[in-house]
Please model this.
Amino acid sequence: MTATAENMRAAWLEARLDLLQREKAAARLRDELTAARMALPRLPVDKDYRFMTAAGERGLEELFDRRSQLIVYHFMLGPGWQAGCPGCSFLADHLDGTLAHLNHHDVTVTAVSRAPLPEIEAYRRRMGWQFPWASSHGSDFNYDFHVSFTEAQRQGRVFYNFTWMEGSEVGEENPGVSCFERDPDGRVFHTYSSYARGPESLITTYMILDLAPKGRNEAEIMDWMRRHDEYEVLPAAAGHR
Model:
């Protein structure tokens, strides 16, 4: 190894060790955030929300599917939409592979959208997904959890991502995730919600891209991304079969 190569290697190792310390600090901070999230007060959910599912009409408690924890992804698919939000579809591509693990760890994950169930099921068939997906059509659920806003609401100020903002800054449907806990007596509690880029950690593709030499390589968030059935078919890379 030449002196120049040795110097480059030493410089790389020094920079990598510095980054390792920052990575460890970030991991410790993530653990602290998780503990703080778990320590948030539990808010009782008293309203009788009704949903339509492939198995029939269900209440919120029944969406737990006999487990004690429920994570709801607020999937942006409004009534009459021809397709779901591309970003939500990108996230949803990562859910099916987690279900066996989560379900056996007392966690149910379901998507909820305001579109009627037949429209949800049509889009599910197109995308080939298996995760549970319920319709909140005709319910206050999306509005109460601040992911859907009427046209009238958007003419004034709305409460989204725990902040009051101009209605013009949000869409009719908006992304988010909400978490719930069911106690042994069947009472349901809201434990956590996150909006905007909050659910981004569910997108494993982004976590992998963050390791890649060019990172996410996007001028604007998700500007390169398409629904998985909308990409052009690429020829096999040379030397790879």
Residues 43-200 form a domain with the Glutaredoxin fold (CATH 3.40.30.10). The mean pLDDT is 94.
